[in-house]
Amino acid sequence: MILDTIDSLARYAAAIPGLAVAGAFIADPATAALPPGRYELRDGLYALVQEYRCAPAAEKRWEIHRERHDLQFIVSGEECIGWSAALVDPEAYDPARDIAFGDEVLSPTDLRLSAGHFAFFFALEAHRPGIIAPGAGDSARTVRKIVVKLPAR
Questions:
Q1: Which of 35, 75, 78, 122 has the fewest beta carbons under 10 Å from its own?
Q2: What is the pTM of this model?
Q3: Distance between CA atoms of 129 and 100, rounded to whole angstroms?
Q4: Adjacent-strand bridge partners of 38
Q5: 52-78: per-residue pLDDT in tens?
Q6: CB-hemisphere CA count at 13 Å for 1?
Q7: Domains and CATH numbers, the chain
């Protein structure tokens, strides 16, 4: 897992294939105005532009992906994302969606992200996005996010 600001994304690009493509998409001023949806990029990458209201942690589930890494960039708002190196006893894996859910992880950590921050989750790292950040005002609970899915090669 990597947690940093978007201004520092380039320092990781040499080590992670596709990260430069993801960073260029996020940095493009036109991207911020795109409506929610899926956008195909090059080199097998795609982006999901999302807008949603955060919820209490008890309403969110842990997830893992096997075939893709997640780059989650906060455009506006603020959220906590849970992270763990391992999901204990995941439910059945859905290969079409590249996802498995579960309720128990080992040594969870909460990450707090606001506009301009990103979290990069490697395949098989458990994460739980969309959690209300403690003390966040009502307007900060609505998040606009870009999630780029990168092949785990």
A1: 35
A2: 0.94
A3: 14
A4: 48
A5: 999 999 999 999 999 999 999 999 999
A6: 20
A7: 2-151 (2.60.120.370)
